[in-house]
Design a protein that fits this description.
The protein has 222 residues and is α/β, with parallel strands linked by helices. The protein has a domain at 54-197: Creatinase/prolidase N-terminal domain (Creatine Amidinohydrolase, Chain A, domain 1). Helices cover 49% and strands 12% of the residues. It has ten helices and six strands; from the N terminus they run ααααβαββαβαβαβαα. It is elongated and about 65 Å long.
Amino acid sequence: MVSRRRFLQLGSVAATATLAGSASGESADSKCPSVPPSIASLKSRKDEARPITTAERTERQQRARQLMQQNGIGAIVLTEGSSLTYFTGVKWWGSERLFAMILPAKGRAFYVCPAFEEGRAREQLALAPDGQAVDLRTWQEDESPYERVAQGLRDRGIATGTLAMEEAVRYVFSSGIAQSSPQAKIINATLVTAGCRMIKTPHEIDLMRLAAKVTLTAYKAA
C-alpha cells in the first residue's frame, strides 16, 4: 500500500518533470505529438518559490538549542536525511562512511566527514549557518570517525551529558558513537527534531501551499 507521503512524492516528481520541460523552452508537444494539450500547456512556477535562507536555518538551530536546554540534552546527532537538510541546507547521500552534524545545546556545531569528501562537504557547508568558519573534522580510512565525534564532545565539555540521536541515524553509526563515548547517555532526538519541524513558519506554509497547487494542477491536467 502506498503511503500518503510516498503518493505526494511521486506526484511531485511527475509535476516537476513536466514543468521542467516547459521551463526549458521545449513544449511537450515538440517531444511527443501525442501529449494532450492540458499537459503541454503546463507552465513552470519555480520562480514563485523563495528558498529557505541561511538566517532561517540559524533560527531553526536556535529553536533546537532551546528545546535541548529545556530537556537536559547536551547535543543532537544528525546524519544524512531531511533533518540535516532542514537545519543546514546540506544534502548528503548516505553510505557506509559516517558524515554527521553534532549540534550542541550551547556552542558551535561541528561536523565529522570522510577526508576524501572534505571538498564537497565544505562546498555545501559554505551556505550553512556557520559558513566559512565551520568546524569540520575529517577522518582517514584507517581512522575511526566515532573518535572524531567523541573528541568533539570532549572539546565542547559534553562528553558525559545526554546525547540525542536523530531518529533516522542508522544503528551502525549510533552504536559506534555510543561505544566511543561510553559516559554519554544516548536517547532519541525526536523531542527536538519534531519539536522544531512540526511548527511551520509563514514562509514554510507558503512553500507548502505552492507545492500543493503545482501538484494538484498537474493531477488535473493528467
